[in-house]
Amino acid sequence: MDNTHEGPAFTIQRIYVKDVSFEAPHAPEIFREEWKPEVNVDLQTKTNRLEESIYEVVLHLTVTVKMGEKVAFLIEVHQAGIFTLSKFPAEQLSHALGSMCPNILYPYARETISDIVVRGGFPQLLLAPVNFDALYLQHLEHQKKNPQKQEEQATRQ
Q: What does the domain layout of the chain look like in residue ranges?
């Protein structure tokens, strides 16, 4: 069998927690209040090329939970993975790194957040699913509308 015409190959080498931070600045007083939280989630991804066809993708999640004006807790998780992506055309590679890899990492980050929140004495927090394809498409549209920012971003990488 001739393997010279193989298509793109994708493998997961490792998934790991790169950084975790948890703060509950108003504990224990906050535990005495009725639990009516306001949850804010900030999500970002970053890609580092480690060597040819090998990439580290880091999903940054920051969750801030407030009770009125008080911060009940703040948790930040950097969930990372090392992925091998070989023989991908440029557009497909960009999509894989910007959508497919974060989609794989998100459930791990979600579980880490839920576990730490419970260990911090708060009710379980299950984050809603995220459509990384839609976020990736929004990112592409934003780059098309702001080509100058795209050039600036390219020079910083």
A: 10-145
Instruction: Centre a 10 Å sphere on the Cβ of residue 82 and count the other Cβ atoms it contains.
Output: 17
Strands annotated E in 24-152: 38-51, 54-67, 70-86
Q: What is the pTM of this model?
A: 0.85
SS3 for 9-38, per residue?
EEEEEEEEEEEEEEECCCCCHHHHCCCCCE
Architecture of domain 10-145: Roll (3.10)
pLDDT, one tens digit per residue, over 9-52 is 999 999 999 999 999 999 999 999 999 999 999 999 999 999 99
3 close to 9: Cβ distance less than 8 angstroms: no
CA end-to-end span of the chain: 41
